[in-house]
Amino acid sequence: MGRQSFGTVSPMVKVVCPGSFDPVTNGHLNIFDRAASLFDEVVVAVLVNESKRGLFAVDERIEMLREATSLHDNITIDTFDGLLVDYCSSHGISAMVKGVRAVSDFDYELQMAQMNDHLTGVDTVFLPTSPEFSFVSSSLVKEVARHGGDVGGLVPAFVLERLTARLAAQ
Ligand code: PNS
Question: For the whole model, what pTM was predicted?
Answer without folding.
Answer: 0.94
